[in-house]
Design a protein that fits this description.
The complex is a heterodimer. By secondary structure, chain A is mostly beta strands. Chain A is about 0% helix and about 55% strand. Chain A has strands at about 5, 10-15, 20-25, 30-35, 45-50, 55, 65-70, 75-80, 85-95, 105, 110-115. The radius of gyration of chain A is 13 Å and the shape is globular. Chain A starts with a strand and ends with a strand. Chain B contains no helices and 12 strands. Chain B is globular, with a radius of gyration of 14 Å. The chains are: A mainly beta, B mainly beta. The interface of A and B includes residues 48, 56 and 98 of A.
Chain lengths: ~120, ~120
Amino acid sequence: DTAVSQTPKYLVTQMGNDKSIKCEQNLGHDTMYWYKQDSKKFLKIMFSYNNKELIINETVPNRFSPKSPDKAHLNLHINSLELGDSAVYFCASSQGAGSSNEKLFFGSGTQLSVL
Amino acid sequence: AQSVTQPDIHITVSEGASLELRCNYSYGATPYLFWYVQSPGQGLQLLLKYFSGDTLVQGIKGFEAEFKRSQSSFNLRKPSVHWSDAAEYFCAVGYFSGGYNKLIFGAGTRLAVHP
């Protein structure tokens, strides 16, 4: 069974559209994250949720809205997609409260291409 | 500001040769240090981590890393590389700042292995 699963794996869409990426973890972890990996492989934190509560929001445009219906799910909705949103988006989870010493478990990524 | 630098963007080694991937960080105190590996089309997987204690840490897949405070470095090593080690390697630093626990990643080093 996949520990952190995200769907879809690939997402191709037009500029201006609205799209969602879903993430689920079956590890019983308390904290979930969204990371963005750009074309140069640089990974940057976007959001972090602990028990459905937002704890990190790293100056991401408000077109990006995370939603955590329960602590096993953290979905990412993106409004009015722009070319610069093209990237690989990774969901991750960790066991505790998002401490800086925690091991992260990553999903396999969603490759978003905005045309 | 905190930062992580991986000086080598791309490294190629022969199978069976030794490997060292460099990582330098900038942080006022002793950070939490990690190495993650990303295989093509996959999410990141933790290889090893350093929090305190013995400065030489052992990880999975035969990897080890050594924390050197005087050099602000946390280089990853493997005595004999296997073809399956070809992947992207990320050094990361965990720290507490602005009321949040954060994890920042280096830009990654792509490892190619020649038969």
